Amino acid sequence: MIEVEIEAEDWTDAIEDVEAVVERAAVAALGSQTGAVVVLLTDDETVRDLNDRFRGKDKPTNVLSFPAAEMPGVVGAAPLGDIVLAYGVCAREAGEQSKTLASHLTHLVVHGVLHLLGRDHEDDAEAEEMEGEERAILASLGVEDPYMLPNDC
């Protein structure tokens, strides 16, 4: 189950049917896994506050993932966690990287869901593995490789 909450209307102004974009990306990233994910589309200030409170970094970032605590005995789709995305940061990055905002959002939702599933990129080997998984999922959605530099074309 994927729940999309929109706090910043910029998201709906910028991306047609943004909820469908998020749901499609999250479902693809989940693959055969089951679980409930909440995706909050918000503004930079909200993400800055969360990033400061939970990570000690007083600045906005593109995406934050908050894995749910273990819940033994839960019937149905157990909560996997929450993903929070900052409109301003994401829109700026998409422009800087010459991507559509919808493609960048798709990538960041996939990235966030993979974090909720326990993937990480703390060292080079983990990063390479996670990026490979992201590439495969995004390719299945028709989204170009987000890690390919413009000079690699």
UniProtKB/TrEMBL annotation:
Binds 1 zinc ion. Its main location: cytoplasm. It comes from the Bacteria. Keywords: Cytoplasm, Endonuclease, Hydrolase, Metal-binding, Nuclease, Ribosome biogenesis, rRNA processing, Zinc. Its cofactor is Zn(2+). Zn(2+) binds at H111, H115, H121. The keyword Nucleus does not apply. Single strand-specific metallo-endoribonuclease involved in late-stage 70S ribosome quality control and in maturation of the 3' terminus of the 16S rRNA. Belongs to the endoribonuclease YbeY family. NCBIfam families: rRNA maturation RNase YbeY. This is Endoribonuclease YbeY. It comes from Brevundimonas staleyi. The lineage of its organism: Bacteria, Pseudomonadati, Pseudomonadota, Alphaproteobacteria, Caulobacterales. The gene is ybeY.
